[in-house]
Amino acid sequence: MTQMLVGQSFLIIVNGLILVVTALAVAPSIFNEHLHDAGVVSASARTHILEAYISSFNASLLIAAFSSIVISGGLSWYFMVRIVKPIKEVTDFAEMLASGDLDARTPIENSIPELNRLTDALAGMSVDLALSREEQSRLLSDLAHELRTPISTVLAIVDGIEDAVIQPDARTWKTIRDQLERVNRLSHDVREVTQNSEKLLNTMSSAVNPGDIAKAAYAAWNPRIGRKGINFELEIEPDLPQIYVDPQRIGQVLSNLLENALRYTPIGGKIDLTVLRAIDRVHFAVVDSGQGIEAHQLPHIFDRLYRGDAARHSGDSGSGLGLTIARSIAQSHGGELTGMSEGRDLGSTFTLSLPIPTQLIS
Ligand code: ADP
């Protein structure tokens, strides 16, 4: 502000000087000519009139200079304050955000459009930062909560063995193993979630046949599903167009869905993996005849760390992150992952739909 004021005052002074010097240099000779034209020929009368003119001219010049300095100085000050004040407010706002105070009050709108845009961008950034900070702390507290159950179960068993109230028999070891597997899986899946955004940037997409991805997933899961006595079938619509995806990542989505289908389908059940075309999309569907999902749980199954009632009570080693990861992979390919169930014990259907590149839609 001081710099701007000094610069402005300098301009006013230079302006004033040019005005005064020019007026002093030009006005007397013009006036003299007018006297001559008016027929004032007496030299003494002309000198006298000219002196009177110059003294009144100087006096008015002085008054004009003074009022001009006061008025233009005042106006400069007024405009300077109008410009500098909002700049200062936005700078203070940015500094508060930088120091981590995301609750800093957003400066009110001012008359400078560029500054308003900057303020809006900063405010948007602070909201994003607040959300991701909130998200991070929620993830940490959810995780702490999820880790507490298996760890305290194992600790209680160890205490029981030490006090000889629990026998270290096969059942005890199985409980310990199940709980540790759960911790293990949690840590693996959390890593997966945190690396997800980074990995998504490194997605290696190429034109692939959707049937090939399904065949690979079928081959990988058929032995495990078969061992549990579940009937597993693969159906691929002929002549499917190619899709532009990272086959590893889409394979990972199918793997998550098949793992869930296996986990939540009892012995003697059925799992189908089908690949179909629907106009501009290819649908991969994993349909199982398992325990199904109740209506009130359906809206939450893609939430991070969400596990359905049955999953929580079965001592199962799922982390509640599988579907979260799978959906984010689907979305990063411009696709969608949805889950559906008619209700308890009526099976579930998960559908991954991926876009067919426009040039291949016929
Ligand atoms: P988890 O590791 O617990 O399986 P997911 O994110 O994969 O976590 O799934 C979240 C929840 O959705 C599960 O706990 C379960 O309640 C429900 N769910 C997912 N897939 C199925 C399925 N095929 N059948 C029944 N319930 C399912």
Class of the largest domain in CATH? Alpha Beta
Mean pLDDT: 87
- Spatial arrangement of strands, main beta sheet: 2-4-5-7-6
Helix content: 55-70%
Largest sheet: 5 strands, mixed
Could you state the order of secondary-structure elements as H and E?
HHHHEHEEHEEHHEE
Overview in brief:
A hairpin with a 6-residue loop joins strand 6 (336-341) and strand 7 (348-355).
Short descriptors:
single chain, 362 residues, alpha+beta, Heat Shock Protein 90, five-stranded mixed β-sheet, two-stranded antiparallel sheet, 7 strands, binds adenosine-5'-diphosphate
Account of the protein in words:
The protein contains eight helices and seven strands; from the N terminus they run ααααβαββαββααββ. It is an alpha+beta fold. The site of adenosine-5'-diphosphate (ADP) has 21 residues, from helix 6 and helix 8. Adenosine-5'-diphosphate (ADP) binds at residues 260-261, 264, 288, 290-293, 301, 306-308, 311, 318-324, 348.
